[in-house]
Amino acid sequence: MAEEHTRHPNTNCNICKKEIYRRPFEIKMNKGRVFCGSICYGISSRKEKPCVICGKLILAQFNKKTCSRSCSNIQRTGIKYKGASPRDKVKYQRGLKIRLLEARGKKCERCSYSKYEILQVHHRDRNRNNNDLGNLALICPNCHYEEHFLEKSWLRKKIEK
Question: pTM above 0.70?
Answer without folding.
Answer: no
